[in-house]
Amino acid sequence: MSHNPIALVTGGSRGIGRSTVIALAKRGIRSIFTYHSNTAEADKVATLASDLGAGAVALQLDIGKASTFAAFADAVRDALKTLKAERFDYLVNNAGTSSSSSLANITEAEMDDLYAVHFKGPLFLTQALAPLMNDGGRIVNISSGLARFSMPGRIGYGSIKAGVEALTRYMAVDLAPRRIAVNTVAPGAIATDFSGGFVRDNPEVQKHLAGMTALGRIGLPDDIGGVIANLLSNEMGWINAQRIEVSGGVHI
Asked: What is the pTM of this model?
């Protein structure tokens, strides 16, 4: 591991990704992070990281368009030069979209989008970026509690996330010769703008979800970002191919 490691975090301008970039910056770890369209929020995150003493470079990326990943890898090479490095150490496949469809109303187009963003995206982005990673690095893929337990209206999202957990194990096998560990973090319900702020902005939803959770509340982005940052650390280096649920104990 390089003396001054660098992380690449997708979806780093908001929610869990933003929290991860800031948690890493507090540990002195620099980041390259992606945003989809909100340049202003991306700039705010980069400034926050810089204020914490860690450089951060924001790059635009649509994780659902794998055809752009080769060009994105070139942009990452340029960003690494800005950070005076040739390679990075940590990859967090976080960027995603929500879905609230059931068996009765999910469409083929929606399922294709979920597959492109949540499964195909992390798979082919990791393929494109692995040559730029240092041996001995670490990857975290983001799943969901909904891959373990089932709730109405999540048939596409939960099923795809279950696929991400299998993908994690296969990545761990294929990257083992390079000593790159790959793990899954599976958040529970988190108060972010995800699903249009469905959890964050609805007291009744929060009360319902808190009632299912052993620790008695919904999650916050910082409940997850700190866990991801810790999982990337050298102290966690012997954890590999594991699913770590960070949900406060939902449905235990």
From this structure: 0.95
